[in-house]
Amino acid sequence: MKRVLYSVFASLILLGGACTPESVEPQPEFFVKANKDGTAWLVPGSGVYNKAQGEFYVFGEQRDGSVRQAYLRLGFNVPSEQPLPTVAQAPSLALLPSTLMVVVGGDVLVDGYTADSLSGTQLLITRLDTIQKVVEGTFTTSLRRDARWSQQGEIIRFTEGSFRVRYR
């Protein structure tokens, strides 16, 4: 009887160990994430504020372990009203064209996509902390492959996007 109990107990332990939840990679503190053509996309994020021009850019940088890198750029003009609103969204934001650039070796452009119309881009700023220099928000955009790289006009869609970036 003891052997049967030990066998059942050992089987339960082995089965319990096999049913552990999938390991989930932690999200970086500063990120850009979205569904890129229906596939989850999570990359490190950064931001740049050009005070002289009043332009703000959010960058998502994707590295694939080789010399190939892709950069998603979202941009907007910072509203001139002071104090800055806590939440700003288009059309109160003047959006700048979104782009996706693919480079090799850090400086050779090998592919590119651009928003062919700003009507397909939505951007909502949910937090702008000028002390900590952090901006957070959500976005959706569709980018068309530049004619320089293809005459087919392929489209990449970023949906359900969000970001938290530190800017300089």
> What spatial form do the alpha-carbon principal axes imply?
globular
> How many helices?
1
**What is the number of strand segments?**
10
Q: What is the share of helical residues?
A: 10-25%
| Total domain units | 1
Encode the helix/strand succession as letters: HEEEEEEEEEE
Enumerate the spans where pLDDT stays under 50 for 5 or more consecutive residues. Answer: 1-21
The largest β sheet comes out as:
8 strands, antiparallel, barrel
Beta-sheet strand percentage? over 45%
Kindly report the average pLDDT value: 80
First and last CA, distance = 70 Å
Rg is 22 Å
Strand order of the largest sheet: 1-2-3-4-6-7-9-10
Would you tell me the structural class of the helices and strands? mainly beta
Name the features.
mainly beta, 168 residues, 53% strand, 8-stranded antiparallel beta barrel, disordered N terminus, 1 helix, 10 strands
